[in-house]
Amino acid sequence: MADYAKKIITENPKCISICFFIEQDIVMEMGKKIKKTVSNSFGKFIIRLFPNVALMNGYDWEVFINYYLQKNHPDVLLNMETDPETGMFVAFYSFSIENEKKAAKLIYYN
User: Fold this and answer.
1) I need a surface site. Which of 62, 80, 87, 89 has the fewest CB within 10 A?
2) What is the distance between the alpha carbons of residues 32 and 24, in angstroms, rounded to a whole number?
3) C-alpha–C-alpha distance, residues 32 and 19, integer Å
4) Is 79 left (phi over 0), alpha (psi -120 to 50) or beta?
5) How far apart are CA 62 and CA 69, in angstroms?
6) CA 66, CA 43: separation in Å to the nearest integer?
7) Where is 94: in which H helix or E strand?
8) Who wins on pLDDT, 21 or 34?
9) Whose CA is closest to 100, among 21, 18, 1?
10) Which residue segment(s) compose the domain that 79 sits in?
11) Cα 8 to Cα 30: distance, rounded to the nearest angstrom
12) What value does the mean pLDDT of the chain take?
């Protein structure tokens, strides 16, 4: 994930942001595969008719990432806020050493 996410520390207010850039070909292909596997029969039918519907936006990634972290790494969710957008998903924390460690885990979990 480190190739598709970037950690940014801002000064005012001092916070740590992890930006997941989803408008990259490999990420979009992964999103299509994820969305197709979790869609019901009607959803799969719609995806075949309208392939661009299969693309996962930031809101879809927010649901997927939160679900994954809740199941596998709930400690990272503590104090994490999110800001999903159409082409990006951002997770952010107020600045602290503990939160900086969580942000680093968010980038490097496989």
Assistant:
1) 87
2) 12
3) 20
4) left
5) 10
6) 22
7) strand 88-94
8) 21
9) 18
10) 5-108
11) 24
12) 81
Tokens representing 96 are 């602290």
Residues counted in the chain:
110
> Rounded to whole angstroms, how far apart are CA atoms 67 and 95?
24
Give the whole-angstrom CA distance, residue 38 versus residue 57: 15
Is residue 2 within 8 A of residue 107, CB to CB? The reply is yes
pTM of the model: 0.74
- In this prediction, residue 110 carries a pLDDT of 44
Instruction: Give me 36's structure tokens.
Output: 């197709």
Structural domain count, the chain: 1
Class of residue 75 by CB neighbours under 10 A (exposed 0-12, middle 13-18, buried 19+) = exposed
